[in-house]
Write a structure and sequence with these properties.
- The protein is α/β, with parallel strands linked by helices.
- The chain has a single domain, classed as Alpha-Beta Complex (Amidase signature (AS) enzymes), CATH 3.90.1300.
- Helix content is 35%, strand content 14%.
- It is built from 14 helices and eleven strands.
- The protein has an eleven-stranded mixed β-sheet, sandwiched between helices.
- Helix 4 runs parallel beside helix 5, helix 6 packs antiparallel against helix 14 and helix 8 crosses helix 10.
- The longest helix is centred in the C-terminal third of the chain and has 23 residues.
- It is globular, with a radius of gyration of 21 Å.
- It starts with a helix and ends with a helix.
- The structure holds glutamine.
- The site of glutamine has 13 residues, from loops.
- Its EC number is 6.3.5.7.
- It catalyses: L-glutamyl-tRNA(Gln) + L-glutamine + ATP + H2O = L-glutaminyl-tRNA(Gln) + L-glutamate + ADP + phosphate + H(+).
- This is Glutamyl-tRNA(Gln) amidotransferase subunit A.
- It is an enzyme of class 6 (ligase).
Amino acid sequence: TQSCIEAIDKAGALNAFVHKTPEIALEQAKAADARIAAGDAPAMCGLPVGIKDLFCTKGVPSQAASAILEGFKPEYESTITSKLFDAGSVMLGKLNMDEFAMGSSNETSVYGNAVNPWRREGSDADLTPGGSSGGSAAAVAADLCLAATGTDTGGSIRQPAAFTGTVGIKPTYGRCSRWGVVAFASSLDQAGPMTKSVRDAAIMLEAMCGHDEKDSTSADLAVPNFEAMLTGDIKGKKIGIPKEYRMDGMPAEIEKLWENGQAMLKDAGAEIVDISLPHTKYALPAYYVIAPAEASSNLARYDGVRFGHRATLEAGDGITEMYEKSRAEGFGHEVQRRVMVGTYVLSAGFYDAYYNRARRVRALIKKDFDDVFAAGVDAILTPATPSAAFGLGEMTDADPVQMYLNDVFTVTVNLAGLPGISVPTGVDSQGLPLGLQLIGRPWEEGDLLNTAYALE
Ligand code: GLN
């Protein structure tokens, strides 16, 4: 814990930690020592971790990287952080992210972006660690903590993991409690671990998941011992390669990475089969209707009254001006764009044309996966991202759709509620890490982790 605290202090330039909690960490570390001495040491005992700023942590600033939550210190602990603390974890602080988890580069954060510890060979230009869990990915990759929590609504664990050479798993929707996690799009949001290795991910996921009566969508299922399932034996497993993920203009390096991954799984005894997920091309547009729709509703609670920022009012301003000014000042541009898009697609005149249509597309995407799994496929292998980490500022001023295209391989998994993992499997010609994604059957994270273990 002490060495992580020192490493964090030295790595200020990465801007990964946005609130440091060394006093809490040292106190928790002492308690962990006592548990270890008493012979009661759960799996995470004494392990220093970072917590994404989206998780409510009692008495500790929890701002979702937004100005609108300025000064917000929750009175309660999220279920996930409580579970991690019960399992002996030590909290080093809160990690940078895109505002309200909306983004793919960390550049929408009110704290400014986190920086990827990786750089292109021979270049000193800063790169994005990805988003939205970019602070988590940067912190794990730079050894500022042993592991971190992330959340994934459309790829926010898997894309930053791929950009930083770390492992990130988004569990099945309902596996981890959302209680105390600031809501973005409630039907898509899931928390998960971001770690150095598949084994660490298995250990940390077990500590994070489980039924919670405070989240009605949390599944009442036993939590397996995921680590015990890491045998490395994948003989006879059927791995599907979806032809729709072979996008036009896919960089040759990504293509090569994907082929290498197939070869590795084949060598380990798996059978590689070609599959089709025909509705894949509608996933991104459906996601960018559903996610903003849910966000516009979830973010209605930031009204300048109950939480955080309230604008200074002028004489004659009424409650409407208070709402308008507080929200205009408190929300950044991307968040405002999502609220506007969401409000529009939910409005009476357009609800059927956009929101309902997107929901129907979502059902078809889920059915594509159901059909493939019913035909005996155990897991699906795809690239995690269309490219390696890109430069900071490279996409911010461009068309927002360019940024959204980063999620092309990951959003399908959230729409279908499935578990997905990103595993570092290579580097590009400039020495930057690249990741492959494995998608598993619902509730079979253990199996998925084991397949990922064979790829590692
Ligand atoms: N990049 C996606 C978005 O901006 C995904 C974000 C996420 O998974 N939280 O919505």
